[in-house]
Amino acid sequence: xxxxxxxxxxxxxxxxxxxxxxxxxxxxxxxxxxxxxxxxxxxxxxxxxxxxxxxxxxxxxxxxxxxxxxxxxxxxxxxxxxxxxxxxxxxxxxxxxxxxxxxxxxxxxxxxxxxxxxxxxxxxxxxxxxxxxxxxxxxxxx
Length: 142
Ligand SMILES: Cc1cc2nc3c(=O)[nH]c(=O)nc-3n(C[C@H](O)[C@H](O)[C@H](O)COP(=O)(O)O)c2cc1C
Hints:
Blueprint: E1 3-8, H1 14-28, E2 32-37, E3 51-55, H2 69-77, E4 84-91, H3 97-108, E5 112-113, E6 118-121, H4 126-141
Parallel strand pairs: 1-2, 1-3, 3-4, 4-5, 4-6
Bound molecules: flavin mononucleotide.
């Protein structure tokens, strides 16, 4: 069974809710989601996951969160080549520029990016939660 890591950072829980729903979708598809806050993730274990899903909201200046998530992402960057990766996160306004930048970084690292990153404005409503479950299911089958 594929073990899929779902690793996220969240301040006010919107991205955390997305992470939980995506994990539910992965499990429903018959894979095994390992849901971890980035603070609990050891970058050295990255290669024990068949695929990974990374979640972080848009933070200051359309960027990844600088203190925990950005250093984590840099720490795993050289191990993403050839790996299947999906991205998600919540944002507060605008056109989700942070996600477009993040997709580009992941592509430039030679990872196999699934679809576009999944973005939700603010807290996920019922329809967004359903989309998160679907996203998890489809990524498990990707
Ligand atoms: C310090 C700070 C900076 C933020 N910067 C942005 C930003 O540049 N662009 C944006 O769309 N939203 C921005 N937001 C809004 C968050 O992305 C939004 O509230 C999101 O839902 C937070 O996700 P979370 O509940 O998982 O923490 C910012 C929020 C905070 C607290």
